[in-house]
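Contributing new complexes? Match this layout with pyridoxal-5'-phosphate.
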Amino acid sequence: MTEKLSDSVFDENYAEIVKNIAAAAEKSGRNPEDIILLAATKTVSADRINYAISKGVNYIGENRVQELLSKDDDVNPSAHRHFIGHLQTNKVKDIIGRVEMIESVDSVHLAEKIGAEAVKRGITMDVLLEINIGAEQSKSGFTPEGIYEALDEIMKIEGIKVRGIMSIPPVCTDKTVQREFFTKLNDIFIDISREKLDNSNRLYLSMGMSSDYDLAIECGANLVRIGTGLFGDRNYKK
Ligand SMILES: *Cc1c(COP(=O)(O)O)cnc(C)c1O
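Output block (do not edit by hand):
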């Protein structure tokens, strides 16, 4: 019974978000199909994740290695898996090969570890570089100024391919300030896409969560990471 109830909640949330994503894409002159909706699945059970996948969600992201490992075997293998949380270098080996992209590369050192582990396994790991756009103490990531030099170093590392950037801007209620953060990120993204990255493959600007994904898309995001907005409050108990 509970399961059914939560399913219908998901259905409504999902339909609403898909609609809003399309509207925001059109507002910024883009095709809604060019925007990836990634479900942030922390605290969500494998059953509910599989339900979401059955309804059309095809990108999922975990932000903790332990949680990812505990659920991954039970989650439909068809979904694209991203890692979106802070990654300790000693855990790199646990997720390489399990995820298709690591969105949260926040140091050259981590990039080196990922590259080394990927080379060991004969693969290339796709990554995004995380930018700490608000220069917040509590968050990791490269500064907007430091990203260019870091990128130059990371691009020399074997086994790793930089496919774009990711960011979690400061929480703020002022839309103007929020828009400034997103716009600045988009500027950096366009800059490095043109000047530095290999753009023969699709590149990603991952920004926007439940409370601000529409604005993020208007400002250029092509990947949004949504948790609460899809699955409801994280304290939710099945
Ligand atoms: C949890 C999480 C999200 C989604 O946050 P919501 O506010 O629940 O949509 C997005 N990105 C990262 C890195 C997260 O850890």
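Reviewers usually confirm one structural detail per submission. For this one: Strands lie at 36-40, 59-62, 80-83, 101-105, 125-131, 160-167, 204-206, 223-226.
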